[in-house]
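From the shared-data thread, chain only:
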Amino acid sequence: MKRLTFILSLLFCIQTFADEQLFLQANTDYANENYSIAISLYDSILTKGLESSELYYNLGNCYYKTQDWANAIWHYEKSLQLEKKENTIHNLELAKLKIIDRIEPLPQLFYKKWWNNLTQLLSTKTWQTLAILCIWIVVLLRLLNQFTSVKNKLFLRILYPTVVILLFITYNSYMHNFIKKEGVIFSSTVIVNSAPTANSTDLFSLHSGVKVEIVDEIGEWINIKIANGTRGWIKQNSCKFL
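Structure, as tokens:
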């Protein structure tokens, strides 16, 4: 049993080292402007199920350099799902300036805008970590109150609502990043229909790189909503899900 554990650990270390070398090689190719080779190497890491914010960010940069705006936007969005970084947000905005469609989002009430900005300020994982940390601090303070003469009632009064707020933020962040279905248009031009059939009325057209929310799915059709609130149906193969 010990020998098997040792062998498995050794194989894991070798695989990890190989993946790190692959990542470094991809970075070198990117620095040398060999973008197609870098993309291939980064993708080979992803096919092994090894995801990271940095990996998606680097892929986004590669596609940006090759002017593949849809892929650049898609990978920046994937990177932001895992970790919020200023560089990624900045590059995403630059990529959005390159696409044809400029869709103005619906104006939000100030408190909804404030709440959404707060929720998306950090990644879901970071919010989860903060919430768990606060819960453990509350538990430790309660134990101190119970078994020692140290009293921390003031801290507990502050921490109780803090834990509740953090749990709400974590839940909303999780719903936005992992439950809410979104995608990016990859077809050069796609006609948005009024119903999930080719014979329905043409409402408007979208172009490559537009981010959409997936509201419903029927067969090969998906009901989408764009930033200004307009909805319609497109073929599923026109969009790549996030």
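The longest strand covers residues 211-218.
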